[in-house]
Design goal:
Elements: E1 19-24, E2 27-33, E3 38-44, E4 53-54, E5 68-72, E6 75-79, E7 83-87, E8 97-101, E9 104-107, E10 143-146, E11 152-154, E12 157-159, E13 166-171, H1 177-188, E14 201-203, H2 211-223, E15 230-233, H3 263-272, E16 276-281, H4 294-301, H5 318-335, E17 339-342, H6 357-368, H7 373-376, E18 396-397, H8 405-418, E19 426-427, H9 440-451, E20 456-458, H10 475-490, H11 492-504, E21 510-512, E22 529-531, E23 535-537, E24 551-557, E25 561-564, E26 571-573, E27 576-582, E28 589-592, E29 595-600, E30 614-620, E31 625-631, H12 656-661, E32 672-679, E33 684-687, E34 697-705, E35 720-724, E36 727-736, E37 743-746, H13 758-768, H14 776-784, H15 789-798, H16 803-813, H17 843-846
Parallel strand pairs: 14-15, 14-20, 15-16, 16-17, 18-19, 30-34
Antiparallel strand pairs: 1-2, 2-3, 3-13, 4-11, 5-6, 6-7, 7-8, 8-9, 10-13, 11-12, 21-22, 22-23, 23-28, 24-27, 25-26, 25-28, 29-30, 31-32, 32-33, 33-37, 34-36, 35-36
Length: about 850
């Protein structure tokens, strides 16, 4: 149980070969060329510079890149292949310090700049859009992070800067966004690996549950077939009715025995249900005399218990922090608390200027959680964003957002944009927290977004009318919510692999479209995002049309061909804008040709996210595909005779910075890994071999999404083929995972996605539309007429029908350019607010950078 929370990997001193320094009178400067695109710039009047770790920068030792220095008496230039810095050797100013990147010039102004945005400390009270702090990505050729006022670490303890010094970083990446983020992580530290169970469904509600009520609720979720992995208990777990002389009841560390008469038994019951437990902590009011553990904490800090003095919260006092963790919280953790929900809302100041209490709480809670690895598997905390570098302390809690369509519409953009500052593991109050209105449709759409968010946590305020259990809604939305919550757990094999990719490959799970595409259009859809390397999510965040009974979202698809995994009879040509329509049961989930997605199809899903006994590989044919399924190291398993897959280079690197940064991570080769490869031309799918696993049998299936051709066959005896809902599923039976050559299946050469049946799909959509019967025939005739497509498109647009109907029909008609009579290339969309044809090219002009 011993944990040294004052030790963590870092290498803050820079490579001296990368440093250019000097002085002119009382102007002292130092530049560190970290890479040929990343520059640290420092200035001081006293001649001192900072070599200690900051909250932003833990690892400043990089191999020295190639650069040139040109120096004269009053001028210094530093030149790399990507930037040209010019400096007059005086106090930094816009006239004296500049850098040209490509054809763009940055001039020093003391501010951070990254016009694509980063994230924010909290969504508390947000009705809709809020202002975001800068990230390290920009539509310009550069971004800048000012680090002059951040907290420091000195021998593991907090420290502060000398006022007046300048310390900043220039990111000169000219829209090479992924390279900028990779080097940001090299400087600041990678995202840690999350435990597998953190990727499942979390239940949370601000409500004064009794122990019996909470356990009964968990049992009802189980009876409903809805798996959970984390039980969150909000602040009513502790005493909230406190003696008035001690202030409010927000802070507390003593179980409310009226609600939880036997806390040990309660926590044991949750563990027996395979749930991890986190308790809410508002620490601001310190430890007060009515607390059960007050005598023990007072003794540790030398307080006279008889005086009954409150022990104030002071995170700048190392002795207090030790007692807080090693006396107070350790006692609760021994009872069965797995990790802590730090709900700090009291500002960013302490008695030491420059020390933000949220930073201190996040940093030391995370490091202290290492003592619980026997239960947690990985260190973990749950708290608010404190600034650049916060990605090292997952998981983020975004705060108490209002329940509005505007808030729902902003949340996917907020999540994706956070990756611009490396912050990949937001947990939102799915469904919204407070105020607003009750809307079953909004609740369903929010749950859909939550399933395709980094963390899926239902939550709501302390209100008898506001709760997120699916059965608290009407029958249809409740059933839909249940289906989506089940889907979240089925995605865990994929999510865990993305978790490893995020930590080891500097690829956050959620990424804005412009991370992967250089087209200007990628910047105009900030609420659309990649969810892993091949999946594009375009959430629907507005009410359904009363005419089509569907919600809609304006999306942009990059070049290529895509199929909707949840509506596989729709295939889209990319390279254009589209309006996508879905009923309440679906959201657009688009996979490009050559996608492999493994999901858990175990018949009955269990709490706690155990490894699946049955996996179905969703395969989108049309191009070669590869996916390596990664699972956590098996307990008490025996290794395969090959310790690592061929070519797996482990974590060793000549870069000392990398060695320090990865010191606390397990070797990548220690994980269980199963390659899955599809050869499009030969029609062969190979599963395995599994590396580092137990070699047990596992049921495997293959689902060809969007393909229903009759050519599918296999060289596997006893396989079964079934076709339904626009896809073909091949059941392979149990496969031993130790076959040294993998498990090979022939499915058919050069398989292609089915061509969209325009007439059938338009008929289905039009049939469902709630509109005048007499107006349906002209719509149908426009799609199926014999004259040219452009003329029929114009005829459709001229009809006196609801604009949403025109767009829903156009989506299908123009989806697949291979379809006979397709409108692809002639498509026109209608602005549903004005009824006018929507000029999508205006988006490039209208897009406002956050």
């Amino acid at each position: 149980m011993v944990c040294n929370r004052y030790q963590f990997p870092c290498r803050p001193e820079a490579n001296p070969k990368a440093v250019v320094s000097g002085s002119k009178g009382s102007s002292h400067y130092r530049f560190t060329v970290l890479t040929d695109r990343l520059l640290r710039f420092e200035w001081s009047e006293d001649g001192g510079f900072e070599d200690r770790a900051s909250t932003l920068a833990l690892f400043r030792w990089f191999p020295a890149p190639h650069y040139r220095v040109v120096e004269a008496k009053d001028r210094l230039e530093i030149i790399t292949d990507h930037f040209h810095l010019a400096y007059d050797k005086n106090r930094f100013s816009s006239q004296g310090l500049s850098a040209t990147v490509a054809d763009d010039t940055w001039r020093y102004d003391g501010a951070s700049y990254g016009d694509l945005g980063g994230t924010a400390r909290t969504l508390d009270g947000a009705y809709g859009r809020i202002k975001l702090e800068p990230g390290v990505l920009s539509r310009r050729a550069y971004a800048v992070l000012d680090d002059s006022r951040s907290m420091l670490f000195d021998k593991g303890w907090i420290a502060t800067r000398r006022p007046g010094r300048v310390d900043g970083y220039l990111f000169a990446y000219n829209r090479d966004h992924k390279a900028a983020i990779r080097d940001f992580y090299r400087l600041s530290g990678s995202q840690p690996v999350l435990p597998r169970w953190a990727l499942g469904n979390w239940w949370s509600r601000y409500h004064a549950y009794t122990a019996r009520e909470y356990l009964d609720l968990m049992d009802r979720f189980a009876r409903q077939g809805i798996p959970l992995s984390v039980a969150v208990v909000d602040m009513d777990w502790h005493k909230v009715d406190v003696p008035p002389q001690y202030g409010s009841g927000w802070t507390g560390y003593s179980w409310n025995r009226d609600l939880f008469p036997d806390p040990d038994a309660f926590l044991r019951e949750l563990r027996d249900r395979h749930l991890r437990v986190t308790l809410n902590d508002h620490p601001a009011d310190g430890i007060r005399p009515f607390e059960d553990l007050y005598p023990a904490v007072a003794k540790a800090l030398g307080y006279d218990v008889a005086r009954g003095e409150t022990i104030p919260f002071d995170c700048t006092d190392r002795a207090f922090l030790d007692a807080y963790f090693d006396v107070l919280k350790l006692a609760l953790e021994k009872q069965g608390v797995d990790f802590w929900w730090i709900d700090w809302q009291q500002g960013d100041r302490t008695k030491i200027p420059g020390v933000d209490p949220l930073w201190v709480l996040n940093h030391y809670h995370y490091l202290t959680s290492r003592r619980s690895l026997g239960r947690l598997e990985r260190p973990l905390t749950f708290s608010r964003y404190a600034g650049p570098g916060s990605h090292r302390y997952p998981i983020g809690f975004s705060g108490d957002q209002q329940i509005t369509w505007e808030g729902l519409a902003f949340q996917p953009e907020f999540t994706a944009t956070a990756s611009n500052i490396g912050y990949g593991w937001w947990s939102h109050d799915i469904g919204g927290h407070w105020a607003g209105v009750r809307s079953s449709d909004m609740a369903v759409r929010w749950v859909q977004l939550g399933v395709f968010s980094p963390i899926m946590r239902l939550h709501s305020s302390k209100c008898r009318w506001n709760s997120k259990e699916p059965w608290s809604f009407e029958e249809e939305p409740g059933r839909i919510m249940k289906d989506w919550l089940v889907l979240r757990h089925r995605l865990i094999p994929y999510l865990y692999t993305m978790n490893i990719r995020a930590s080891y490959d500097a690829e956050p799970l959620v990424q804005p479209m412009y991370w992967n595409h250089k087209e200007e259009e990628a910047y105009t859809v900030p609420a659309q995002y990649y969810f892993g390397p091949n999946l594009i999510v375009a959430p629907i965040t507005s009410p359904n049309s009363p005419a089509t009974l569907m919600g809609a979202v304006r999306a942009w698809l990059p070049p290529g061909r895509f199929v909707d995994l949840l509506r596989p009879h729709l295939v889209y040509d990319g390279g254009r804008y589209l309006h996508l329509h879905r009923d309440l049961t679906r959201l657009p989930l688009l996979a490009k040709e050559g996608t492999i997605l493994p999901i858990d199809t175990t018949h009955k899903l269990a709490n706690g996210a155990p490894r699946p006994t049955e996996i179905t590989v969703l395969l989108v044919v049309g191009k070669d595909a590869h996916f390596e399924l990664v699972e956590e190291p098996e307990q008490n398993g025996h290794d395969h005779h090959h310790h690592r897959p061929p070519g797996d280079g482990d974590d060793d690197d000549d870069d000392k910075n990398e060695s320090a940064a990865t010191a606390s991570r397990p070797a990548l080769s220690s994980f269980v890994r199963t390659p899955i490869t599809w050869n499009q031309d030969d029609g062969v799918l190979v599963i395995g071999p599994e590396w580092n696993g137990s070699g047990k049998w596992r049921q495997w299936n293959v689902k060809l999404v969007g393909y229903t051709g009759s050519a599918v066959r296999s060289n596997v005896s006893g396989f079964r083929v079934a076709q339904e809902d626009g896809s073909t599923t091949i059941s392979l039976g149990n496969v031993h995972r130790w076959d040294p050559d993998g498990f090979e299946i022939f499915l058919g050469k050069n398989l292609q996605l089915d061509v969209v049946d325009v007439k059938s799909r338009v008929f289905d959509a039009l049939h469902r539309c709630e509109m005048e019967y007499m107006k349906k025939d002209p719509v149908w005739d426009a799609v199926n007429g014999s004259d040219g497509v452009p003329a029929r498109v114009r005829r459709l647009l001229a009809l006196d029908v609801d604009p949403s109907v025109k767009n829903a029909v156009m989506e299908i008609w123009a989806a697949d350019g291979r379809a006979p009579g397709s409108a692809a290339g002639h498509e026109k969309w209608v602005d549903t607010r004005t009824g006018e044809v929507d000029d999508l090219t205006e988006l490039l002009k209208e897009y406002v950078i956050v």
